[in-house]
Amino acid sequence: MHAKRSAVLFAWILLAPALLYVCAIVAYPLVDTFILSFTDASLKKTTNWVGWANYDKIFNETFAEVIIRTFVWTFFSVAIKMIIGTFGATMLNAAVPGRALFRVLTMPPWIVPMAIGIFMWGWMYNGQFGMISGLLQRFGIVDGPVAFLAHGSTAFWATVITDVWIGVPMVTLYMLAAMQAIPQDLYEAAWTDGAGRFYRFRRITLPLLVPSMITMSMLSLIATFNSFDIIWILTQGGPNGETTTMIIDTYRTAIGSKKYGEGAARAVLICIFLSIFCLCYFRVTSRLASGEKQ
Amino acid sequence: MREPAQLINRYRWYEIVGIYCGIAVFLTFVLAPFVEGFLVSLKPLSQLFSSPYRFIPENGSFEAYRTMWESVPGFARYIFNSFFISTIVTTVVLCMVVPAAYAFARFEFKGRGTLLAAFLAVNMFSGAVLLIPLFRLMRTLGVLNTYFAMIVPGVAFLIPSAIWLLRTYMMRIPRELDEAAYVDGASHFYTLRRVILPIAMPGITVVAITTFIGSYAQQFIFALTFNAKSEYMPLPVGLFAYFGRQEVVWNELMAASFVGIAPAMIVIFFLQRYLVSGLTAGAVKQ
Questions:
Q1: Is B186 on the interface with A (CB under 8 A)?
Q2: What CATH number was assigned to the domain covering residues A52-293?
């Protein structure tokens, strides 16, 4: 019995540094955010308790728009990532020469410093001289230059596409790993029964991929909801706030205008949404795991 | 008689054409910004700012790769900062993660599952959500505008996936090894240092690489918010200052970007096998 107790003690000693560190840098700030959201903290020396005033202030029409925009932005980004990623994985899963190289070539957007990838997109979206506008003009799809980042609706889609681009490698490699985990004998059995390639894909690959798709969508949802760098570098939330998501809005309020209290209230709302997503994620994955065992 | 697997994977010519077309479309989307960025870095500025758009540079040269060192005075310093910050972050993360992962992989204690889930839940908060209290915390600690302002928060957000990844690796080490050492009278600490660490070295290397890449790739928001001194800026933020200007010297910016991503590219090509397992392992439920 004594040996077991010493083992438990040793385990806690091993855990202590990481645990204390994460408590200090993540858990404590989280609590602090909640406390700050009820104060008028700013650059002033004094900080007063203001109750729900910050929350009353943010629930207005613009903020409702920001919330809806955040969800629409996130939804499209995740959906497009999943579609392109699953498509890419299907292609890369085919046993053709060169597939090892193709797999390596999907990785750069994920591995290079995010900001630098976004600079490149910034140039591609340039209206006067950028690639996309230039090619669209050459093929006669548009008449004049299109400054993608200068108009609300195009800027919205431009930021979505860039976010998709950064997220696609992760989705692709994850879905590829999931496809390769499907037992080969299923395909062989179906092939023996005369099932064609497309039929096998529809009846074996796709159904068995559903759990991985759900898991990946949830992870992607959480990451995308938090997306900051892309919008900040490309548009800083503009033009006219048309690409302002909740994260950008919080950053502007807290760091731009130095209204820490109001910013914290916004951050709390983000945390609530994220917690809901996270709970769903744990629920879904544990259900999927128990489903597999049966 | 050939194996069924080989027969299944035999494609007709139109299937092969279809697959390669699909791959081409997919890779075009993934790689277009890099190709365009590289071509831009070769074009003289006058050609860049001319209509109609031309994809292939005329009289392309590596001129921008030379002039950028003068136009972006802190460039060498930014690259050094990026490497310096990533190296320190990786070292600190490893020091905390190796013992923690071992504890999660081997010991039974109350609340282990909950604690592991709590660590993973850290992943759901980006730094952006916690920026305000972190800013106040950094101010209280007096580390604003120093390297620490970027290192301290950077470490915290890389710990969870590193623990998860290394725990998975350590669980595959046969338990008999620990038990044999224990029976021989070795202490827990001795077992960890002399038995587990040497065997787990490949796993630790993978974690080190992924942590380094993660830290190198994500130096933006903390560096943007907690540090205003250009001598401490990592590359992405240093270049962002130029990106934000009215007159962006695009060919030099792209040349600088390519020099900045070169380390990551080299890592991809040499270590991609480890990277794939490493980067997706955090997401795959064991």
A1: no
A2: 1.10.3720.10
